[in-house]
Design brief:
homodimer; 105 residues; mainly alpha; Multidrug-efflux Transporter Regulator, Chain: A, Domain 2; two-stranded antiparallel sheet; DNA-binding
Chain lengths: 105, 105
DNA sequence: CGTGTAAGGAATTCTGACACG
DNA sequence: CGTGTAAGGAATTCTGACACG
C-alpha cells in the first residue's frame, strides 16, 4: 500500500550535525556546503543562534551533489533533478490519497 | 554463530553530535553530561579543537543514565552495571573465539 | 554526591565582500 | 559559475573553581 518515504523517528533524518563535521564527513569545504544551500540544493535546520544543523540524509545528499559536480553538472541542473524527483513523489502521494479516499474524477 | 555487537558503518555509532544538541536531545544539562563523562559513564570523541562529539548511541545511553539517576541510583553504581555488561560481552567473545579456533583446554 | 553558575578564553560558525576565472 | 580567503562579530564549548547540600 505504498512504501513509507520517511522514517520520522530514524536517526538518519535528525538534523544534529554541525557544518564542520558535515565538511569532514563529505570532504567538501564549508564554503561549498554553504554555497549549495544558497543554490537551494540542501536545507539544514538552524539552531537558535543561527548555526546550521544537518542530518545524515543531508550528508548523503551532499556526497551525491559532490559526485554530480565532479561530473561537470551545474548546480541549477542538479536542482532541476531534485525538483523532478519531488514532483514524482507528490504525484504518487496524490494518487495514493485519491485511492484511499475513493475519489473518482 | 553470534550476533554482531556493532554495525560499524551505521549512523548510530558515528560521533558527530555536539554537546548542545546532545543536551537538547536528552533533556540533560551540559553540566550533567560533562559530569557523567568525568564519572566515566560516557565517552565522547573530541574534535581537534577539543569539543565533545557524541553518537546517537551515546545519546541513548545518556537517556538511560538519566532514568537510573531518577531512580536514585548513583553514578558509581551505574558504572558498575556497565562494567558488568562489558565483562559479560568479553567472556562471550572469548567463548566464540575459542570455538572458532577449536582451542581445547 | 550531583549540579548550578560566573569567569575567561579558545574553537566554531556566521555573513557579506572581494578575488579569480 | 563555483570556490578560496581575510574580516569582524556572534554563538558555542572548554576548563577549573566556588557554592550548596
Amino acid at each position: 500500500m505504498g512504501i513509507p518515504l520517511s522514517e520520522p523517528g530514524s536517526y538518519k533524518q535528525k538534523k544534529v550535525i554541525g557544518i564542520g563535521i558535515a565538511s569532514e564527513l563529505t570532504g567538501l569545504s564549508e564554503r561549498q556546503i554553504r554555497y549549495y544551500e544558497e543554490r537551494r540544493l540542501i536545507f539544514p535546520d538552524r539552531s537558535k543562534g543561527g548555526t546550521r544543523k544537518y542530518s545524515f540524509a543531508d550528508v548523503e545528499k551532499l556526497v551525491d551533489i559532490a559526485n554530480k559536480m565532479e561530473d561537470g553538472m551545474q548546480t541549477f541542473e542538479i536542482r532541476k533533478e531534485e525538483l523532478k524527483k519531488s514532483d514524482v513523489r507528490n504525484k504518487m502521494l496524490r494518487g495514493q490519497l485519491n485511492a484511499a479516499f475513493k475519489m473518482r474524477k
